Amino acid sequence: MTPKLAGPVVRSWRALPRPARIVLARVALIPPQLFGVLLVTFVLVRLLPGDPALLLLGNMATPEAVASLRQKLGLDQGVAVQFVRYLGRILHGDLGTSIFTSHPVVQDLIERAPATLELITYAMILTIVIGVGLAILAVIGRGGVADHLTRLYGMAAGALPDFWVGLLMIYFLFHIAGWAPAPFGRIDTYLTPPPTITGFYTLDSLLTGNWSDFTSSAGRLVLPVATITIVNAGGVMKMTQTAFAGIYDSPFIRHARACGLPQCRIVAMSLKNSLPPIITTAGFLFGFLLGAAVLVETIFAWGGLGQYAVQAVINSDYPALQGFVMLAAVFVLLVYLVVDVLYELVDPRIRI
Amino acid sequence: MTATLEVERLGVSFGPSGAPRQVLHDVSFRLEHNEILGIVGETGAGKSVLAHALVGLLPGDGRVTDGVVRFEGRALADMSQRERQRLRGGTISLIGTNAKALLDPVARVGTQIARVLRTHRPCPARQAWRQAVELLGQVGIVDPAARARAYPHELSGGMAQRVVIAMALITRPGIILADDATLGLDATVQVQVLDLLVQRSRMLGVSVILITHDLGIVAHYCDRVAIMRAGRIEELRPVQGFLGRPDTPYSESLLAAARARPVPAEQRHAGKADKLLVVENLLKLFQVGGTQPPVRAVDDVSFSLERGETLALVGESGSGKTTIGQCLLRLLAPTGGSVRFDGQEIAGLSEAHFRPLRRRMQMVFQEPYVALNPRWSVLDLVSEPLALLGHHSRSQRLQRVEELLEMVQLSRDLARCYPHELTAGEQKRIGIARALATEPDFVVFDEPTTALDIRVRAQIIDLIRSLQSRMGLSALFITHDLNSVRSLAHNVVVLNRGRIVERGETEAIFASPQQRYTRTLLAAELPIEWSASRRAGAATVANPVSEHSA
Fold first, then answer.
1. Which of A259, B218, B340, B449 could lock onto B38 through a cystine, CB 3.0 to 4.6 A?
2. Is B146 domain-assigned?
3. Domain boundary at B415, B439, B463, which?
4. What Pfam families does the record point to (chain B) (predicted)?
5. DSSP string of B315-377?
6. Contact (CB<8Å) A273/B119
7. What does residue A71 show for φ and ψ, rounded to 5 degrees?
8. Burial environment of residue B436 by CB neighbours within 10 A (0 to 12, 13 to 18, 19 or more)
9. Which of the residues A255, A346, A347 would you substitute to probe the B interface, choosing the one with the greatest number of B C-beta atoms within 10 Å?
10. A262 interaction partners in chain B (CB closer than 8 Å)
């Protein structure tokens, strides 16, 4: 990844501390990646069947109106010019107008993205904690109760559809037991959502000191987060178990034991050594959930991004779909940036 | 006075309690203060199991079925979990084989040493780090302050072994248990590491158990020796007496194998000086990337080999000997220079043109197990090269495989076995049979005797010698085991860092080495005959009363 540069540049590059080199080398890749994403979304729109102007105006439009809109949208220009204009619009935060909601796509996304992000962020944290935690318990207590239970769970988790788990939870915990709050959105309807600071209701209500908003929004998160976690922690657990067990039996861990290091230290050592595959899996899962949480969002009437995207597909709402694809791509790009940086930070053997 | 370690009638079993497999039987010995005890045995004798039983860390379902292990009079079995943890690393430190695998790959070596110290003697992190750096300097690491910040993958095998020794010494334990600690290291590094370990131990008054399969090590460093076989201690005596006259036939055979002082390589029939292989100015560079200059793995090397001659390439790891062998067989493409085989230039040949020559040039690879496809039976493995000779019928192939197995002195029943079912010596023989299957003119033996038990090593040397005389084989013999060079090679080329340092007839080189590097190599040998002089050297700081009787 080191650029081939003249001697002094290389020397000052080498003089940087390793973490700085890792971050700089990886961040330098962002602009070309971003350009690629924009190019793909642009081409995607070009590939869509039908004339965007006609699509926007509907079938009853007069030819004159279509022509003037084509001119206004720049569709009568060459492809290169159109791409430059497209880039210019995006830089100004203009992703077009949703045909279905008639709002600017950017506004729709800003409203809905935090809902999904809040849901999947908490779900990810819980998934990793539970997945990794169970894996460690299973490996340490091999042949014990934890080992057998996790094996059972690992088998079941792969076979559980998320909507089914969600419905079961609603049925038992809300309908029968009445412990959980209703599966209708992110916050009780009689409460006003907290002012937007981060977009996460839980954080915003804490920051503004609104206790009732916090309990309500946190309560509403419990079931959907639990659903996503139950479905996905199994995969993380199995993967971690494989990586962790391999390390836990390795010669250097046996040597650490022979040196008298305490058990907690040995587990920490093994975990640190098994981090790379865990980081990769978690990063992949996080990017995947952005769109894949749609069934859970639907069941809990969450009003998130996945629902928005599905709606856009159903209604042939191309600007909205394009906006979603771009947002998802950028999100995945950022997640992978973090993944790559973490990956290289935890493994000193990777040369930068 | 109580011994520092006392083992009484120790028995260890593995497997289900219904049908246990007993691995140690009735093992008893005492380790006195400031004593160095050698435990010698071949693979499978139970040496490692004994080491792990002593620290209470038997692998898998292993368990102590009989007897007691006492430290300063306290039985291991009576200790609590916590006490045992304090014991490990605090009272008895284990140094294992292959140090690079014993270090945490994602922690700095200084941190790892300090971690052990702080576990046993809680102290501020900075102070622990300072002590770790100081100790690294004492175990012979140059620039210890900088090296302490290195990660294990940045160290050579010898340096990693020193770090592991530092980890063992940092808590000032009473006993050090070295389980084949120098296996796989270069002889020169092995001597340095052992000298260091023994000197520091004598200085600090630490008792050492050296577990090894190398009687040379025992002869040079130990006060007493225990011979283990099949989970029992066969003989336990002071080293001097043992070397003079062992008690059991088994010890006798071990000593005889270790002594196997060359019958020097047989003289060739003085025929016409017919050069089979001529290597001129061979060059092999490895690009390391970035702006660093390429590594000159083989740097302007020229030598030639006559028909029926065995030439040894000798040097430490990293000297380029294996690279030369691989360049000759075009497993690596040489960067420059010329290689002529039987008059034909092969250095620039395309693989398609070189392929017919492969039948005539073969290689026996270094790691027998790694070089054999684990999913193929011996029959498949040995008959694979026969494809180079053109079509054979099934029965012809089978017959040829049996001939080859007989040639390498293996039973034909092994034909149906898979590599993992064979011993290391048998795997080596299969590797040799594969190389000889095409009746080649020229064979490269890459480290044929390393990491083998003494007696197996002697057998392999005998086998190669008999093949040499029967087949008139021309061979290049790549090794750092000088002992086998004497028995096998007519001529020697000594390599250091890709360059030829010295060359000549084997006897001449051994008798009067001209270059300092060659002398260092020779001095690193630990033949059991010279033990007295070296023992004096190693024991300079020894306690004068280090000899105890059992």
1. B218
2. yes
3. B439
4. ABC_tran
5. --TTSSHHHHHHHHTTSS--SEEEEEETTEE-TT--HHHHHHHHTTEEEE-SSTTTTS-TTS-
6. no
7. -65, -45
8. buried
9. A255
10. 85, 119
Asked if A261's CB is within 8 angstroms of B115's CB, the reply is yes
pLDDT at position B350 is: 86
State the residue range of the domain holding B387.
372-439
Q: What is the CATH number of the domain that holds B85?
A: 3.40.50.300
Number of domain units in chain B: 2
| Rounded alpha-carbon distances, angstroms, from residue A99 to A59, A107, A300 | 14, 13, 25
Domains, chain A, ordered by start: 11-91 (no CATH), 105-346 (1.10.3720.10)
Are B90 and B217 found together in one domain?
Answer: yes
For B268-312, write each residue's pLDDT tens digit. Answer: 555 556 788 999 999 998 876 556 678 888 999 999 998 888 899
B145-194 pLDDT, tens digit per residue, is 999 999 998 888 888 988 999 999 999 999 999 998 888 788 888 888 89
Contacts of B291 in chain A (CB under 8 A): 4, 7, 10
Range of lowest pLDDT (A45-54, A101-110, B416-425, B429-438): A45-54
Q: Is residue B475 a part of any domain in this protein?
A: no
Smallest Cβ–Cβ distance between A259 and the set B101, B106, B116 belongs to: B116
Q: What is the pLDDT of residue A9?
A: 77
Q: With contacts defined as CB-CB under 8 Å, which chain B residues touch A255? A: 94, 96, 102-103, 164
3-state secondary structure of B71: strand
Mind telling me how many Å the CA of A250 is from chain B's nearest CA? 8
- Ordered strands of the B336-341 beta sheet: B295-306, B275-286, B336-341, B344-345
Regarding whether B385 and B247 lie in a shared domain, the answer is no
Q: Do B119 and A347 touch (CB under 8 A)?
A: no
Distance CA B357, CA B67 (A): 62
Residue with tokens 């050090």: B176
Q: Which two tokens stand for residue B337?
A: 């220079």
Question: Structure tokens of A308?
Answer: 């928005």
For residue B273, tell me if it sits in a domain: no
Spell out, as residue ranges, where chain B has pLDDT lower than 70.
Answer: 1-2, 260-273, 288-292, 529-550
DSSP string covering B152-220:
GGGS-HHHHHHHHHHHHHTT--SEEEEESTTTTS-HHHHHHHHHHHHHHHHHHT-EEEEEES-HHHHHH
Instruction: Give B87's contacts in chain A (Cβ within 8 Å).
Output: 260
The nearest CA of chain A is from the CA of B56 a distance in Å of: 9
